[in-house]
Fold this protein.
Amino acid sequence: MAPIIKKKVWNFGKEKDKVKDKEPDMSEVIVCPSCKRELAKAQVVENKYVCYKCGNYFRVRTFNRIKMVADTKSFVPWFHEMDSKNPLDFPEYDEKIKAAQEKTGLHEGVTVGEAKIYGESVVLGICDARFLMGSMGHVVGEKIAAAVEKATAMQLPVILFCCSGGARMQEGIISLMQMAKTSAALKKHSDAGLLYIPVLTDPTTGGVTASFAMLGDIILAEPKALIGFAGPRVIEQTIGQKLPEGFQRSEFQLEHGFVDAIVERKDLKKTLYKILKLHSVKEGYANFLPATEFRFAPSELMKERSVKSKTLSAWEKVKAARNTSRLASVDYMDEIFDGFIELHGDRFHGDDPAVVGGIANLDGQPVTVIGIHKGRDLKDCMSRNYGMPSPEGYRKALRLMKQAEKFHRPIIAFVNTSGAFCGMEAEENGQGEAIARNLYEMSALKVPILSLMIGEGGSGGALALSVGNEVWMMENATYSILSPEGFASILWKDGKRAKEAAEVMKITAQDLYHLKVVERLIPEFGKADQDALHDISMFLKCNIREFLEKYSKLSGEELAEDRYKRFRSF
């Protein structure tokens, strides 16, 4: 919300006069529209236009937004003065445009151009709510489409700060056409393998939400921003009900799978830079940082633990794989990879916490990392449904894998699940279809896929992330068509014979290596616990590097064919 001014009016004047502006006097105060407290303007500015009392986010003007995210003096505006028209000859529309230009110093509701973020070149666009509520008329649509087209020609990523009330009513159907035009330009940009990041700010609604705001490879949002197609007032009038607190806010959109991450304003520039760097490798795999010799040798303690550990029975391995103290996928992800950025949501229905995924670096090589996470304590386990993914979890994983293919990133998947969630809502949302779709799409992805069985590998729920060029398995992990309890119950009508079933099902890593279902066994150095984390992780890191180097020699088509032949052999 815009701040309420007291004592002195503060603004940065017209954009063209910004150089003449002086630093505000410390006596200037503003009133936060949320908590109603008086604030020192200079401190609010220093705090990135966030209330330092209650955390309320003020709306940011174009010039200030550029200052916050672009390197100093790096922004070069494009298409600055496109002529506005009045396609419907709407009464007094021309006067409104002129008044908005005078008030804001902007030519239109969006400013576009080239900039640098910590040295990384981008095409940057900023919507400004002060200009007719940032509504999208033909000039806004044309500037965005033209900027995206130029970005495509220059092979540059696009970052758009979205802030809009939606379509511009005074331009009627011509405004509506801008939704299709901007979307079509972004499709061409995407087909060229280029990165697009919309940053959703308060408010992002209407036709902007239903076009360029929600088409990003990675969608970021500021905290508590209003994001939705129909505004809350319209919805309340339509359904005759009061909307719940937080409805359509950023946090709501994150929970429902439509936003990758909510980023605080103070962290935004660094977050954008990290994402840009992770997308700076255009082609190839095993693009490791200049060769330092990477060798792994287990510590003496781990050697001792390995020697002392006895050979477990199949049932003992089942219990070891299920042990709550067993290392989780996120433990390995943190230890093996650098700069992990978690991405959320399936873009359809929700964000399943049982599936954790995102982008990271492996010694300079960007990779997509996905893991099924059971949780660490009772509360965490409950929130993650004990690692039993729902359809939205599988769809999130597939979305990230398709994104990896677009940007030529290898995929590393950590699998630990007793199986896909069996519940009424999972069936209503298409559990079977979601798993089938993963199998179908993963078979043809043109990037290397490595699947790691680190605990339980339960049936189709595990297979949905295990259509890899190779599948590796920890020495005490299991991988099976069904749990031993379920197997015994179905075949012998006696679930108590689970221990016996485990022995005949051939579900251990050693059994599956013999059957050529898995390509490599991963040592646990006695037990996959916190003491062994570093050694297991370094073993994995060393061998993942070798995996990537091996598959870097294959084309995308050859990678898909290799995967096809692997499963065709069973």
Remarks:
- Residues 112 and 147 are 7 Å apart (CA to CA).
- The longest helix spans residues 172-191.
- Confidence is low (pLDDT under 50) at residues 1-25.
- The radius of gyration is 27 Å.
